[in-house]
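Figure S4 source data
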Amino acid sequence: MAPESQETVVHVEQTRAVATITLDSPSNRNALSSTLVGQLSAALAQAAADDTIRAVVLTHAGGTFCAGADLGEALRRGLSPQEATAEGASAMVSLMGTMLGMPKPVIVVADGHVRAGGFGLVGAADIALVGPAATFALTEARLGLAPSIISVVLLPKMTARAAGRYFLTGEKFSPSTAQDIGLVTQALGSAEELAAARDEVLDGIRKASPQGLAASKKLTTAAILADFDANANARAAESAALFASDEAREGMTAFLSKSKPSWDSSE
């Protein structure tokens, strides 16, 4: 994906064998624009190839960890809705695959809202730590869509009952619920506790050998990666078909205009 500007929206800092990658595009809620995707992909690839890096921390600036695809930005670049959807799907699959496949642990540290493709980043991480400001909602069904692509990394980690509820209802849920259902590793009660938990995890990782980390991570990701390409591509095709439907067009139009779609029978 070619960036639409040279603005830096992903920052990387290396400290004691850990690369901290910060999503820094709060103006669009850290949505996955072509610029952010390009810079994040490059940062992950560089960390994976750097022998001095033992682990990656993926975090954010602003009140949202990641709001998912930035379809508006793609449309402004002249892409058709179908092209924008396909580009976003390809980017999501690539990012999740990179995080799962790299031989180093990826730790998400989030203290903000997680929506849409943000769930894909959380689900693809090896460890996910969240603070009290984190909120979660899978609202795709309300728009005539489904969490198709991100389901590849969510279903192996969330309990079946939780997926059956939150995929369908679009309810907002809390950090403690996210921990209880297996979406995140640990929910912390304050920013200070979140930082302390991050440091505790990183201290353990710094004691591990590169070979030991790579081999251990491979064990934990083998089941997802075994069918990742086939499943992710199938879910991407499913997502594209849903986006092209009349119901999705109505759902997204209603969302943008803050009105109800025809199927909404709530009070």
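Figure S5 source data
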Amino acid sequence: MAVTDLWLVRHGESIANIAATQAERDGRERIPIDIRDADVPLSPTGCEQAEALGTWWSEVGPSIDACWVSPYRRARETLQIARGADAAGPPAIVDERLRDRELGILDLLTRRGVAALHPEEAERRRHLGKFYHRPPGGESWADVALRLRSFLRDELPRCQRAGLVVAHDAVVMLLLYLLLPLEEQELLDFAASHTVLNASVTHLTAGPAGWELAAFAEVAHLQVEGAPVTVHPGSPDVELD
């Protein structure tokens, strides 16, 4: 039996999401957080969102036979809280290829900070575009797509029916790019008008013609449980153009 459903979940709101959004609003150059990206935990709201995700898990979880999660704390916490005491589902496989995009020298900088402290990178980004711009010490979206190609090649064959990935907004976007598939401009246009919401669920289905997008960034489970819906757009270089 071939895999027919793939569920993509973004982690709940993290304390870094809050800090980054506030820093952008305040016009700061740097995001005031001193925890490495891999160790950033969920915020109290993020924990509430992950608990609400448990409603979705109780309905869909029994059909899932393969489960993968980013090694970053916020993703692992989201899955752990959502699953609760459910020990019947498949074990969660931690895969470093699902980690968030690495920003290198632009890490913890706001858009204002990038323009002020690394104007040459802002110019390179304008010239190369979001998909191919690789900050020194970091990754482009193309780099993330490359490691995700490896993940799909190695891991999808483990799945007999339905799989779940719990990771980050860039990972969700780039899995859509690979599986639908999309051209570079199609991806950039889609990303510009769609945000992967915290603790949202994106659903892909496989048919005779390939993968199709059945639902994007659904948050009905949050609304049912009364958990806040939060909008944190991800990488701070998204509006450098």
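The chain has one domain: 5-225. The chain has nine helices and six strands.
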